[in-house]
Amino acid sequence: MSNINDVAKEAGVSITTVSRYLNNSYPVNVNTKKAIQEAINKLNYKPNAIARGLVRKKTNTVGIIVPYITNMFFPEVVRGISDQCNAKGYDIILVNSNSDGFEEKKAVENFLERQVDGIVIIAPKIEKLPPSFYRKLNKTLPLVLVNKYFNDKDIVFIYNDERDGAFKATEYLLDLGHKNILFISGSENSYSSEVKIKGFNKALKSRGLLQKKNSEDNDNILISDYTSENTFKLIKSNMEHVRKHSAIFCANDLMAIGVIKALRSEGYEVPRDFSVMGFDDISISALYEPGISTVSQNITSLGKVSGDAIIKLISKEDVVRNQVLNTSLIIRDSCSRIKE
Amino acid sequence: MSNINDVAKEAGVSITTVSRYLNNSYPVNVNTKKAIQEAINKLNYKPNAIARGLVRKKTNTVGIIVPYITNMFFPEVVRGISDQCNAKGYDIILVNSNSDGFEEKKAVENFLERQVDGIVIIAPKIEKLPPSFYRKLNKTLPLVLVNKYFNDKDIVFIYNDERDGAFKATEYLLDLGHKNILFISGSENSYSSEVKIKGFNKALKSRGLLQKKNSEDNDNILISDYTSENTFKLIKSNMEHVRKHSAIFCANDLMAIGVIKALRSEGYEVPRDFSVMGFDDISISALYEPGISTVSQNITSLGKVSGDAIIKLISKEDVVRNQVLNTSLIIRDSCSRIKE
DNA sequence: TTGAAAGCGCTAACAA
DNA sequence: TTGTTAGCGCTTTCAA
């Protein structure tokens, strides 16, 4: 591997001039330019980004932390961020946290050592890591938090309006005449399930349908785990309870598929006997039969906007602190008007 | 941000001693250790990996190039590589090439400038970039090529035996009594489709069923584009031709779903009227109804083995040059014995 | 338009 | 067990 010295020697100039030519930072004589370029070609020289990063105190790198890269939702977001960053000359260091707060913290510290210019955390573990962690980090370097939110006016948050998505989906079901809607949550106390339940309840309340009880014995909510398999089992073993409802609203599409399969295995048809609504609009939902009505999370623009934001923060441009993206209802074939 | 000088001053020792403590490279007095650690804590010091990389000529980074991060197959591979690398203290720089040879080349050059310790290319564009490109790269630094192969005894290749997978799938169809099998290819002249067609033809030949023709008018092969939508259309507009066959073997699962949907919309049922076989075993295939019989590519171990290989290459350990992983037949419900 | 030299933060050879 | 010093490959003042 040749370095800038070799090039300078070969071209018969000083390394300063080579550097200037490389970076276009000062005028260089045309003939000198030619000589340098020839030397570069001859030696197959490539500037060392590490050395450059050391002196410039800028690595043109952004760190991304993702909970599960295998989760369909996230690669799409990573892709959006990565596209924006690459276009501006930044590279991506990607770390998979397994949705573990400790791993996330380790990744952040590693990023700091690596002198990344900015950090994007997708679905940060705000249930595990205290707000102070993120606040302090946000003071240290450009930071963007994606798809979660807590109250802080200095941090840049970019997320989908899941609450409104759940609200719209519930309204749609209500408009179809369903009065007893069962909600299948994906986890007990996560940010995402709480937000969706809020939207769900808001819609019920607006029609005077919200039962006034403490949340403990909410009997129109069942808790599953975001997987198709376990939701299948959950429905099968709670059929008696399920039968009291005419529509089932699931916190993600995978669970909606589990529900449909369970219902079928009990001899029911969707949407004939039950309406089933999903959330996320993963690619399966369009391919499945029946096509699953769901809430689209606008994943692509989530990534694009996040990538845009981190680049702007790094460039010290203004960025809106709190960007909430619209979700939209995707109507396919898994819901129908209630039979009287 | 404090540096090693600040720590040394604070602890009242030289920077060498701090460095030794940090790297555990030489014995340091217990009290000195304590003083240094206190200084580190007080100043919240983190070693600068860039500076360290410059002098050590090692960045603990591996570059990964992936054609489409949104393609379901690839995140799984990336995950495997990333797990292995992280466990050994390496970070991942990820670049999405859009399966474009030029982008891939740019990414490689960028990696070289960034002084990565090794490069893993998933599905390298060997149809566009000449073998010489990879051979030269392989002489420059540790390189692993995943899921493609060309004849070179110095490069480390890790790939699934797609040929054998296609062979086994075809044999299975043959064993069910199907004599007229239609193959849906995903592209015209790609490595992957050629390899699968070879396996397909080998099975036919072994039963004396291979038509002796030039490949131009192979009338048991239809060319699609790996998407569900276009395969749907292709089947619809070629129904007359399709009807001459009793089984359809698709080069990926998405196309299998497109085929099933098209068949349904023509009033047929799968597997009653046609048997349909996929390839890849993406997660939809288990959830779809009917469950799609397919060839599993062993994606997880593809990533794991690749990650392992690049680390070993970097550590100058021995690595098998040519690792082919077994594919396996996953039998679900989309194929049945032919009706007489 | 060009060059000499300092220095980015760190490691490692050499010396003590 | 510790410190001095050179230098990794580059950018950037300062001076010419």
Structure description:
The structure is a homodimer of 340-residue chains. Chain A has helices spanning 4-11, 15-23, 30-43, 49-56, 73-87, 101-113, 131-140, 162-175, 191-206, 228-237, 239-242, 253-265, 283-287, 299-314; strands at residues 61-66, 91-96, 118-122, 143-146, 156-160, 181-185, 221-223, 247-250, 275-277, 294-296, 322-325, 328-330. The first copy, chain A, has 340 residues and is an alpha/beta fold. The first copy, chain A, has three domains: 4-56, 434 Repressor (Amino-terminal Domain), CATH 1.10.260.40; 61-160 and 299-324, Rossmann fold; 162-298, Response regulator (Rossmann fold). The first copy, chain A, is elongated. The mean pLDDT of chain A is 94. The structure holds a DNA duplex (16 and 16 nucleotides).
Biggest β-sheet strands, sense, barrel of chain A: 6 strands, parallel
CA radius of gyration of chain A is 26 Å
CATH superfamily of the largest domain in chain A: Response regulator
Helical proportion of chain A, percent range: 40-55%
**How far from one another are the termini of chain A?**
79 Å
Strand content of chain A: 15-25%
Report the oligomer.
homodimer
CATH topology value of the largest domain in chain A: Rossmann fold
Number of strands of chain A: 12
- Largest inter-chain contact set: A-B, 43 and 43 residues
The appropriate CATH architecture of the largest domain in chain A is 3-Layer(aba) Sandwich
Order of helices and strands of chain A: HHHHEHEHEHEEHEHEHHEHEHEHEE
What is the helix tally of chain A?
14
